[in-house]
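Record type: monomer structure entry
Structure origin: computed from sequence
Chain ID: A
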Amino acid sequence: METIGYINTPYDEKFAVPRQPGLAPHAVSTIFFYPPYDDPLAFEGLEGFSHIHVIFLFDRIKKTEFSARVRPPRLGGNRRIGVFASRSPFRPSRIGLSVMKLEKIGKNSHGGVFLVVSGADLTNRTPIVDIKPYVPFVDAVPDAKGGFADQAPKLHEVCFSKKALDDLNDLNFGEIAAIKETLAQDPRPAYKNRGEDDKVYGFGMYRHEIRFKVSAGTILVESGERVTDL
């Protein structure tokens, strides 16, 4: 399948990537396009839209034998449903679709177009297949039914230790907010049932190793040391 570019996101690995787009609105990303798809003529009129559909490939999911049923994290990772009734990345085509806010249309030093977006739910350098404008009068369905995901997930309080704040002092307000929004979703494996446990978890974001644990329903960021090998 032809790819037209890739997206740079704050998420260095699959763990902790938001499970849906828009859940971490401060997470700013950039879509870069390969020539000739970066031609400014291909983007004429896009400035009139606030959001775009981004079609991408789940490139970090290995191609396996087709499985008709999956276990969505939203159902605790235990209950199985049909793959086509889910947004699981374990799909026959490995194609994904996300709606993102279009923050900026920019040009590089060679005149090629790039897009700055927010609210991405993708790992860094995910291949992009296509983009299309989000058209509210046809794409927004106010009375739509959401099945097993009819309500937004519960958010958790997030606190930072003094060490974590010191470790992250090179990040700006928006980047700290994006880390907080990401953690508020509780990125632990679904089988943990969102309960309390003693394990310390870690993931890479903004070139920092974010380490956290859950205590009394609150997510505590213990450290965020900068790393160079992610």
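Annotation 1: The CA atoms of residues 89 and 122 lie 11 Å apart.
Annotation 2: The two ends are 28 Å apart (CA to CA).
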